[in-house]
């Protein structure tokens, strides 16, 4: 089970941190990903991070602005989002390799 949280209304240029708690699988050995569903239902992969948290990858559209991290003691993965623009408005989901994705959290970037 996966549950993302932390979304909301953010002003352009602002920041927000999303969290996702995983359960029902061995979290510390599972690659975790963040994906978003943009208006019009276009889905975009944003980032993933290996089980140890030592290696993360990012889509070009977010590289340098978003940071993925994890706390295996808390079965939680984070997405720190900075310098947000209206184009980042989307429903954000976390996914666990081999275990699907959970419910998303809406992030709306607007003044």
Walkthrough of the structure:
The protein has no helices and eleven strands. The protein is an all-beta fold. The strands form two sheets. Strands 2, 4, 5, 6, 9, 10 and 11 form a seven-stranded mixed β-sheet that branches. A four-stranded antiparallel β-sheet has the order 1-3-8-7, with no helix packed on it. Strand 7 (66-71) and strand 8 form a beta hairpin. The termini are far apart.
Summary, kept brief:
The protein has strands spanning 2-5, 8-10, 16-22, 32-38, 42-49, 56-58, 66-71, 76-81, 90-96, 100-101, 105-109.
The proportion of residues forming helix, as a percent range, comes to under 10%
Strand count, sense and barrel status of the largest sheet are: 7 strands, mixed
Per DSSP E runs of 2 or more residues, the count of β-strands stands at 11
- Unreliable segments of 5+ consecutive residues: none
Please supply descriptive tags for the structure shown above.
111 residues, mainly beta, 7-stranded mixed sheet, 4-stranded antiparallel sheet, 11 strands, 52% strand
Walk me through the topology.
Layout (H helix, E strand, L loop, with lengths): L1 E4 L2 E3 L5 E7 L9 E7 L3 E8 L6 E3 L7 E6 L4 E6 L8 E7 L3 E2 L3 E5 L2
Parallel strand pairs: 2-11
Antiparallel strand pairs: 1-3, 3-8, 4-5, 4-9, 5-6, 7-8, 9-10, 9-11
């Amino acid at each position: 089970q996966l549950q993302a949280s932390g979304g909301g209304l953010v002003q352009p240029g602002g920041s927000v941190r999303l969290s996702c708690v995983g359960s029902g699988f061995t979290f510390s050995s599972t690659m975790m990903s963040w994906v978003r569903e943009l208006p019009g239902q276009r889905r975009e992969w944003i980032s993933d991070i290996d089980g140890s948290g030592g290696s993360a990858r990012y889509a070009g559209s977010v590289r340098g602005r978003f940071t993925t991290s994890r706390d295996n003691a808390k079965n939680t993965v984070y997405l720190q989002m900075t310098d947000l623009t209206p184009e980042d408005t989307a429903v954000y989901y976390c996914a666990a390799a081999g275990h699907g994705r959970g419910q998303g959290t809406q992030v709306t970037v607007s003044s």
